[in-house]
Specification:
One of its GO terms (biological process) is response to stress. InterPro entries: AAA+_ATPase, AAA_N_dom, At3g28540-like_C, ATPase_AAA_core, Mitochondrial_chaperone_BCS1, P-loop_NTPase. By secondary structure, the chain is an alpha/beta fold. The chain has 16 helices and 16 strands. It is elongated and about 115 Å long. A hairpin with a 2-residue loop joins strand 2 and strand 3. The chain is about 45% helix and about 20% strand. The longest helix has 30 residues, at about 430-455. Residues about 1-5 and about 10-20 have low confidence and may be disordered. The protein binds adenosine-5'-triphosphate (ATP) and magnesium ion. Magnesium ion binds near residues 260, 261, 305 and 354.
């Protein structure tokens, strides 16, 4: 018997033939065995019908999560990959292991066609990684030069139909959130720097060890800063509701060596944000500046150090190229870049300006809403000293502390100066004695200067 498969398939498709498909399929299978003559199209049509019927009566529901959506990677697939990596080592039979250059830890994943079970609030689900090999020319996102065969990957998530709502509304968002946390913990922080109008293609791994545990600032100020950062990170909904861009500006000011750059490092390590260290002096013009800020990723810190020195930004009225020592970035350009409408394009930006001379800044830069928080980093008090002694000498108490506390109340000394004294010797007592000598000398110089002033006045 000969089939005109195409016309048979289209004829059957016009009618609701599904209830008959199963029976027909069995007949055809029998005939196939006898005659080996069933055309491919017809068989796959029956196969579809059988699958459809079995799904209809099955209590299971399956969500297919493909790796690509057009050219872009599907974020749900990426999240599932990261999330299942943590489960695979426990419940899969075979796992793959890899490590990317910018990752701190090994990444595990389920192998092809492996299954992983998971439980969420009493609901059991099954994940399966499906990999199909195809001709690479058929896939748009695939680099055709590298291989003739490509793999189309997808996850199948299967669970009981009655849990559909819970899976869509709670479980999948939960998977996305856990994956975000895993990625955040695994990715090394990077520091980006700019040359002219673009960020360097190869950001450097940020290895600064400073943290809020080692930063020596007044305890109360430190708590205030950490609380502010915590509030900012959790405030997505607040920023959305109030129509504000999700960004926060900090101005760090104080004498050299009081920990402004160290605080930025502690912030980046605490939030796990990349740093974009912007050198305004080499930015061509306002347009370049805008492009640079648009080129930053979300969840990052934009740093402009020594804002008073890099370019002349004092006077907005004189905001012309000529009055700006030939620099084409102007104050209004900078304000627009950090403040303007399009600055909302990315989310979770922290902007930090530092200066040794707050009084030299244009008030426009300090207006509330621009610099949300101004943090004064000042000379070392006793509480900050104790932190430094802990960092460098690993001590919390010493008989010389009383003397040091007294001297710290009489002279102005920066944490950087103290840090230098505490690293001069290996022995803690000798270091503290050196420090006392250093503080006494400072005190003497201060008194001499004061006396000279008094003599002049007389
Ligand atoms: N508050 C601090 N806590 C711990 N270490 C500090 C602190 N301040 C300064 N230091 C030490 O002094 C060094 C210089 O400090 P830092 O670069 O943070 O100062 P700064 O305020 O940014 O100075 P500048 O105004 O010159 O840029 C740091 O590498 C660190 O070792
Ligand atoms: Mg600095």
């Amino acid at each position: 018997m000969k089939f005109d498969a195409k016309s048979l398939v289209s004829t059957m498709a016009k009618f609701d033939t599904k209830p008959f498909v199963s029976a027909m399929a069995s007949i055809m299978v029998m005939r196939t065995i006898k005659n080996e003559l069933i055309p491919h199209e017809l068989l796959s049509f029956f196969q579809c019908g059988v699958d459809h019927l079995s799904r209809r009566f099955s209590p299971q529901f399956t969500v297919v999560i493909e790796e690509f959506q057009g050219m872009a990677r599907n974020q749900v697939f990426e999240a599932a990959e990261a999330y299942l990596g943590t489960k695979a080592t426990v419940s899969a039979e075979r796992v793959t292991v890899s490590k990317a250059d910018d990752h701190k830890d090994l990444s595990f994943n389920m192998d092809r066609n492996e299954e992983v079970s998971d439980d969420f609030e009493g609901v059991s689900v099954k994940w399966k990684l499906i990999c199909i090999q195809v001709d690479s020319s058929r896939i748009r996102h695939y680099d055709n030069d590298s291989s003739a065969v490509a793999e189309i990957r997808s996850y199948e998530l299967t669970f009981h139909k009655k849990h559909k709502n819970k899976i869509f509304n709670s479980y999948l968002p939960y998977v996305m959130e856990i994956a975000r946390q895993i990625k955040q913990g695994n990715m090394a922080i990077k520091i980006h720097s700019n040359e002219y109008g673009y960020w360097n293609r190869e950001p450097v791994k940020f290895n600064h060890p400073m943290s809020f545990d080692t930063l020596a600032v007044d305890e109360k100020l430190q708590r205030e800063i950490v609380n502010d950062l915590d509030k900012f990170v959790k405030a997505k909904e607040f920023y959305r509701r109030t129509g504000k861009a999700w960004k926060r500006g900090y101005l760090l000011y104080g004498p050299p060596g009081t920990g402004k750059s160290s605080l930025i490092a502690a912030m980046a390590n605490y939030l796990h944000y990349d740093i974009y260290d912007l050198d305004l002096a080499v930015v061509g013009d306002n347009r370049n500046l805008k492009d640079l800020i648009l080129g930053m990723s979300s969840r990052s810190i934009l740093v402009i150090e020594d804002i008073d020195c890099t370019i002349k930004l004092q006077n907005r009225e004189e905001d012309t190229e000529a009055s700006n020592n030939g620099h084409k970035v102007t104050l209004s350009g900078l304000l627009n870049a950090t403040d303007g409408l399009w600055s909302c394009c990315a989310e979770e930006h922290i902007i930090v300006f530092t200066t040794n001379h707050k009084e030299r800044l244009d008030p426009a830069l300090l207006r509330p809403g621009r610099m949300d928080k101004q943090i004064h980093l000042s000379y070392c008090n006793f509480s900050a000293f104790k932190q430094l002694a802990m960092n460098y000498l690993c001590i919390t108490q010493h008989e010389l502390y009383e003397k040091i506390e007294q001297l710290l109340g009489q002279v102005e000394v920066t944490p950087a100066e103290i840090a230098e004294e505490l690293t001069k010797d290996v022995d803690a007592t000798e270091c503290l004695q050196d420090l006392i000598k250093f503080l006494q000398e400072k005190k003497m110089i201060k008194e001499e200067v004061k006396n000279e002033g008094n003599v002049k006045e007389e």
